[in-house]
Amino acid sequence: MGLLHTVVCYINPLGSMRQFSGPRAPPPTSVLAHVYGMQNLYTGFIRILAAYNIDNAPLYHLAILTYVGTIFLNGSETLIWKTARFYETKYAYLPALIGLVWLVAQRDWYLP
Length: 112
Known about the structure:
The chain has one domain. 76% of the residues lie in helices and 0% in strands. It has helices at 2-11, 13-16, 30-52, 57-80, 86-105, 107-110. The radius of gyration is 15 Å and the shape is globular. It starts with a helix and ends with a helix.
């Protein structure tokens, strides 16, 4: 999903920032969309590398941190900074929570 959103951030930068529509949201800009797209790009590549090398503990833990980071980013933007509303960010929480729960629950199975 993150890699697909990267493409959207570069093709339709202003439309891709629709989730940042809270009461304190800055005006959407192409630069902000490109930064967000780049963050999605490296997060997606970390997750692909971790999936390919599933028994590599540092990569596994780095993949866990990408999900924690996604939850933290959207949570802080929604609850602290008020730049996003939960309605728009709910679709970012779902895959992040599923991925985080799965990786933590299955850690002993994948790592020696």
